[in-house]
Amino acid sequence: MIHFNIPPFIGNELEYIREAVESKKISGDGQFTKKCNAWLEHRFQAEKVLLTTSGSTALDMAAILCGIQPGDEVILPSYTFSSTANAFVLAGAKLVFVDIRPDTMNIDETKIEEAITERTRVIAPVHYAGVSCEMDTIMDIAKRHHLKVVEDAAQGVMSTYKGKALGTIGDMGCYSFHETKNYSMGEGGAILVNDPAYVEKAEILREKGTNRARYFRGQVDKYTWVDFGDSYLPSEINAAYLWAQLEKADEINQNRLDTWNIYHDAFMSLEEEGKVRLPVIPEGCTHNAHMFYLKCRNLEERTALISYLKEHGVQAVFHYVPLHSAPAGLKFGRFNGEDVYTTSESDKLVRLPLYYGLAEEDRQTVIEAVNRFYGR
Q: Where in the chain is the domain with CATH 3.90.1150.10?
């Protein structure tokens, strides 16, 4: 069976984990955590980056830092993972879902403004498949209505919008380093704090509400509990695993792009014949080949394709069930406007195997199986 995903493994991970263990420092904010934070800050020109225990807890931190109060509203797409919504629900917000664009599966920026009310506090765009939302428009709307922007860039590490790294455009951005992502630490993530006014607050929040970070910088002679906080620091063991991959970030990125491009070229003729639709990368965006998907003509065809591929040794999967139709979505939110594309487009999408090190023969097996399904 050709797996849908295999977590990345470069080769130095075990050496660095051993180094972390032998250093007698395996809790958070040791040498490997600091190396990862510094690399991410430098590479993406971010004001401040802090590793977290997951992409979900990075979002939790962002929601708290935005000062969400019970009854406030947050605008987001329904086509996303539950973590995007959970973070704001945890803070007490009401979710306001809007429709997506059919080309990128991202939030439709033209639907945001009509969803704004006097209770709106945050816009949370999700960069699906590592392809950027239309951030100039979103940031303009946020500025005019005095709203915060939290980028869910869980899938967007190494992607850009008009030369800016995803996650660095809004007030805050959130990455995921889950085992399904391009760069992994098993479970882990990072929050990017782009407004200097929130940096110290983020450090306190991440360190159980203490000013421990200031203490270790020599800014105070002892540290104490100064505000609400929680424990969002990942283990040094996890950070050591991630560091091995960040050292080879460009190699991983190029390998994934090679597979993505091979798939894209191989299936162009199917799109020209009207049998499938391929991913769209808008002008001004660079992507990280987080995933490659095909859009079938309908739900029945997608179901049949996934079944056919499984029978021929290829694991392919569909993706999110739109949140607004889920039990928790009905409980915690509402859909603003008409669901023109969210449900219909999500019913058509099938994701093909794509991971670092996917063998050429396996790529060809996938391509041949898809082509056979469509009679080629």
A: 249-373
Lowest mean pLDDT among 21-25, 140-144, 186-190, 287-291: 21-25
CATH tag, 249-373: 3.90.1150.10
Going edge to edge, which strands form the sheet with 160-161? 164-165, 160-161, 285-286
Span 256-273, pLDDT tens digits: 999 999 999 999 999 999
CB 233 within 8 A of CB 33: yes
CB count within 10 Å of CB 74 equals: 28
**CB neighbour list of residue 153: distance below 8 Å, 6 or more residues apart:** 127, 159, 166, 167, 173, 174, 175, 192
Predicted model pTM? 0.97
What span, in angstroms and rounded, lies between the C-alpha atoms of 233 and 242? 14
34 pLDDT band, cuts 50/70/90, is very high
> What topology is assigned to 13-246 in CATH?
Aspartate Aminotransferase; domain 2 (3.40.640)
Q: Kindly report, residue by residue over 234-244, the tens digit of the pLDDT.
A: 999 999 999 99
15, amino acid identity: E
Element at 306 (helix H, strand E): helix 299-311
335 CB neighbour count, 10 Å cutoff: 21
List where CATH 3.40.640.10 sits in the chain.
Answer: 13-246
Helix axes 360-373, 299-311, angle to 10 degrees: 130
Query: By the 8 A CB rule, do 190 and 60 touch?
Result: no
pLDDT, mean of residues 29-53? 97
